[in-house]
Amino acid sequence: MKELKLFGMRIKELRTIRKLSQEQLAGKVAISPKYMSRIEMGQQFPPINVITKLANALQVELKDFFEFTNEVRNTRELKEIISVLLKETDEERLRIAVKVLRALVR
After folding, report:
1. Could you report the per-residue pLDDT of 59-79, keeping only the tens digit for each?
2. Which of 49, 67, 69, 85 is the most exposed place for a label (fewest CB within 10 A)?
3. C-alpha 80, offset from chain centre
4. For residue 9, what are the domain limits?
5. CATH no. for residue 35?
6. Per residue in 78-99, pLDDT tens?
7. Same structural domain for residues 59 and 88?
8. What confidence tens digit (pLDDT) does each residue in 50-60 have?
């Protein structure tokens, strides 16, 4: 079951990087938003035809859904991940993030 959760988290990560809501991605794939939510939460594994549609909608290869190590390949991807994380963070945590980044850069 761990892999199912990881698969769902990877879908959510790629969707967030593409700046799509669950509803938008579900619409592109022709599935219900509720089903999309269950996939991302790791409660349901979609059939191959839905996985293929997800890959097309997210502009990734099928193999990208199964890269659970989260190894980042380039600077651009690192910056996208940081940007997404910062958008989801409140002011207090942003202040902490700035302090941590300053300490790392110095």
Report:
1. 999 888 887 655 556 777 677
2. 69
3. 11
4. 1-69
5. 1.10.260.40
6. 777 777 778 777 888 889 888 8
7. no
8. 999 999 999 99
